[in-house]
Design a protein that fits this description.
Blueprint lengths: L3 H19 L1 H12 L2 H24 L5 H13 L1 E4 L23 H17 L8 H4 L1 H4 L9 E4 L4 E4 L15 H17 L21 H18 L3 E2 L2 E2 L6 H21 L5 H11 L6 H10 L5 H9 L3 H7 L19
Parallel strand pairs: 1-3
Antiparallel strand pairs: 2-3, 4-5
């Protein structure tokens, strides 16, 4: 009996893995239906609207972008869709799927083959179709599962996805203050929106089509500004290795934009904004740990900087950080004002 336990556990793990791999859209909908409240969804939707409006204001006031590029960028924001919780897409796995239950003498292996056959058949059915909406990219969208702590910007549908599972502590809680929520999930939302205008997202227009809508002069200025971000991070020592500024530039740029915009929205919407709570929330979001081996792999492959630098290096760029904590020249995180910069 004891010898059978590892086998049983292995079979259970495989079964669970099969469900996650093939029914993630259905599981996402189940998770959101049971764990995402209407109150939270409405709160996050309101935060998203405010942050998008702040990005519009910053684009209107932008002094280095020409009108033609600026108007295209604002159009992207106006058409940007916000998906909170699950992705409402018909799964290519279950569309038209017919399974025979055990009560009707159906077999597990027979069901596995039916699922795989149905998935392939439905994917092939979309070939040569110009645009079939979310169904066409259902398998891609399924990567963003509502039960996983994640958020993303998807350029080919000009949408940000905020998974239900990330709408929990330490990112967000209905019991948190506005300052704490904006320092957590608010900055994450701003981060994802920023991706619409980075080196990858800017290749897509407001409708999700691959199109170069940047004037050459603006693209060159953007590259020059992001070069500052590369230099700000490049070569920082961590766990026996160093940060690659070029590898991490898009995520670092998104962090900077997300933090700055979220703080601005907080200050405008809440006269009792607590800057210490805001900054502390960001530190809690990115607190992590890793073995040296894992850290070295991430330094070579992960476009995100290690958590400690997502916190410290970003805060060093923000004037509000200095006034909040009274930093003076000579302090470890002090960066002279002339060396601080903003991209958005």
């Amino acid at each position: 009996e004891d010898e059978a336990v590892p086998f049983a556990k292995g079979a259970a793990d495989q079964g669970f893995g099969f469900l996650l791999a093939n029914f993630s859209i259905e599981l996402s909908q189940y998770y959101s239906d049971n764990y995402l409240t209407t109150e939270t969804k409405e709160n996050i939707d309101e935060m998203c609207k405010g942050i998008i409006e702040e990005y519009k204001d910053r684009l209107r006031e932008n002094d280095w972008m020409q009108d033609a590029t600026r108007q295209k960028a604002i159009e992207k924001l106006e058409k940007m869709d916000v998906i909170i919780g699950e992705i409402e897409a018909e799964s290519p796995v279950t569309k038209g799927l017919k399974l025979i239950s055990a009560e009707d003498d159906g077999a597990l292996l027979q069901g596995v083959f039916a699922v795989q056959e149905n998935f392939i058949k439905n994917n092939f059915s979309t070939l040569h179709q110009e645009n079939v909406g979310l169904e066409r990219i259902g398998s891609t969208l399924a990567l963003f599962k509502s039960y996983e702590v994640n958020a993303a910007y998807i350029p080919n549908i000009n949408s940000i996805v905020i998974n239900a599972a990330i709408l929990n502590e330490p990112y967000y809680s209905p019991s948190y203050s506005n300052s704490r929520n904006y320092g957590g999930i608010g900055a994450v939302i701003g981060h994802e929106i920023s991706h619409a205008f980075d080196q990858i997202g800017s290749r897509y227009d407001a409708d999700g089509n691959v199109q170069n809508w940047w004037l050459p002069e603006d693209a060159a200025e953007f590259e020059a500004r992001t070069q500052k971000m590369i230099q700000h991070f490049d070569g920082l020592p961590y766990m026996g290795g160093t940060i690659d500024g070029k590898l991490t530039v898009t995520e670092n740029t998104a962090d900077a934009g997300g933090l700055s915009v979220s703080l601005e929205v907080l200050e405008r919407s809440d006269k009792e904004a607590d800057h210490e709570e805001f900054f502390r929330a960001w530190t809690e979001v990115w607190a992590d740990k890793a073995t040296e081996e894992e850290a070295l792999v991430r330094l070579k492959t992960d476009p995100h900087s290690p958590g400690v630098f997502r916190v410290n290096q970003q805060m060093m760029l923000m004037d509000a950080f200095y006034s909040t904590y009274g930093l003076q020249e000579g302090d470890g995180m002090f960066l002279p004002k002339e060396q601080r910069f903003e991209i958005w």
